[in-house]
Amino acid sequence: MENSSDGPLRVPGMGDIPLDKGLPITDRFAHGFCEWEQVPTVTQREFTMVAVMNDLTDKPDWQTGIFRQERVDHWRGDIFAARPLMSDRAWEWCVSELRDKAGYYSTHGFIHVLDTGSRVCKSDALVSPKLLAEIRGACQSLLPTQAEGQSCTNGVVSLIDPSLYPLVWGRSLIRDDGGHSTVTQAPAHEDKRTGIGNVQERMDTALRGAYPEPWHYAFEEEDRSEYSAYFWSYRHQWLPAEIEFSEAEGTAMRFTSYINGLDQDNKTLDRPLAELVSACIAPWNDCLIEGRAGWDEDWDYLPESPALGWAPPGNVRPQRGRTPCRIITYGPQWDNEAPEWIALFDQHRRKRVAKYMALKAEIEMIKSQKPPRDADAGSKKKHKLRLAVAEWALAHNKDQEVVGLEQLPEPTAEQWTMAKEYLERPEPGTDAPVVLPESWERSAGILLGRKTRRLIRLKHPEPGTAFSYEEWKNGTHGGKAIVDMVTDRPIRPDKPPASTPHEPYTISLEDKFRSQGLQVIVRADSITLDAGREKVAEFVGSSWSLAGQPNEHVVAIALLAYDVDNVTDVRVSFRQQTDIRENTYNYGQGGLHQEAATFSVFKMPAHTWFKASLEKALCDIFGFDEAEIAGHTPTFPMEMQELGSVALAKGRLIAFPNTMEHRIGPFSLQDESKKVGHVRWITLMLVDPHYRICSTRNVPSQQGDFSREEAAGYKRDMEKEHALADFARYREIGKFFFA
């Protein structure tokens, strides 16, 4: 693809390149449009760990305080009081990692936070006070002009808005040779979104609150080939600016085409924004995610074993993010599991086995009473009927669950002593031994079961169990899991053993793309709170979103809060799609298990008894809602996990890949007596440099060409398209549950 002045314009939507042209996944960076998902699913304890490290790195002088034991001990006390899932082993890991992060910060000026697969890069040092003041001063001139009269979306006023003057196929003028000579009208494109009127109507109905999963209702009549067309816009595209590396080495940059949404006569922002892009290169290098082969492989259905369902394309599930998981598990562990000898006291099983064995004995007795050959027909018929009735009773009796089991031996004197000592153990939360009633032996089995239910506890997986911090840091952990993925599923014999490895890699935008430069989409936004105006007295938060549509091929984002005054903490939250396949995680017996047809609780070892449901255990470990996962609500959960949030403090730069959704959280006035407060920030969106898309190099400024009403109409149209794209994406992500 090419959009320079050296030849014909070869970009998506021009010439023989389709508008929705996509490069192979291995030849580009990853995006979040139903392509990238976190593997493996992240545990709640790991989310706690990264949240703690993110919070601590917001403290003044954290990078020196982490080496002072008295300060570390003080932090520890506060964190353990506030974070139930923080443990001694998790804390030791966090301290070790924070000390390494301090070294990285001193060298690079930023750190990785919320780094569970995807990562966010956070810096309070990359943007100097001088650059911050320049950006603030240059943006100040936009407030009285461009903010005036503009539409306000959810309280956000866009000072630089890429949706106001986009590329409009069939309307915009374009230099079709990529340079500065011939100008023609951009070609129109066929809209592949079928039934858009009906979809829009159903979406509007769903958004009025009538449906719990509005995206399913909106696309209930469309199959995948139809609703996936809604990912794209066939009418609009944001226009990035061209920016080049201005020196033979390093990351110094300069814009070579205008910034869309800015008056072409206003050049005061060009240099400071180019400096800001330069500051983003290293964080983007650290957070961009490369596409990998195998992400789009389909699972294979096994027709010879339909009860086993679908087999994965291989036994290896590589981790996909830049940071390997600190804790990997595919199932729960428990403290205080039932001892195996407890089965000897199960009187219920004894009765069931005895009844079953009696039925079998009756059948054998009937068989032994078979009439002789010369018996009359009536006797033979009567015997045959007796045998058939007995065999039917055996085959249809619930005691089929004990088929193949032998009667248990009676407990020995030693085992009775063990049972007594077990029942006398203190109850949870106390140290006092339990005093047993005199007749406890009569109901020993029931008492032992109740005791175990009170003692047994889900054991949240701990870091440092399957591999050490040093192994994790050095990349020698091998992706070992605490509890291995399910193996009583169709494992392919021609594939290696099941594992979850991680492959580290480095990215250097300045080396790989120095000659061609980059394309960046710029926007600037402002939120002003006013205690005297009801609708703007507080900000309620934005909705979850990815940046742009696939048309723009945005792969990384950077946010800079350049002006913050009299508001509470402004935080950016993140969530990502995950892959929690039910035939990979240990959640209990079901159709995916090879022994499901003959499953019986009596055949399970005693240590598996008396536990809460494995579905609930997995929900506790990974942070899902049990009622949703079990199908007890009108909705099932999407395969999404929230990573946490990062404070967007004044002067702070945060960068992250466009593989995960983000949103601005709610905030309000810090001091209501001052009446007003505001936050203003710059958003930079990096176009995947493996592509070249139509940019402001190719489209002359349209601010004099579009009327205010026409530009506002394109903005409204793009907002609708983005909403439809989100609905289509959620429809594709779908929902999951454990059967």
TrEMBL record:
Cross-referenced InterPro entries: DUF4246 (IPR025340), DUF4246_C (IPR049192), DUF4246_N (IPR049207)
Domain DUF4246: 11-76, 89-709
PANTHER family: FE2OG DIOXYGENASE DOMAIN-CONTAINING PROTEIN, IFI3P
Protein name listed in UniProt: Uncharacterized protein
Organism: Microdochium trichocladiopsis
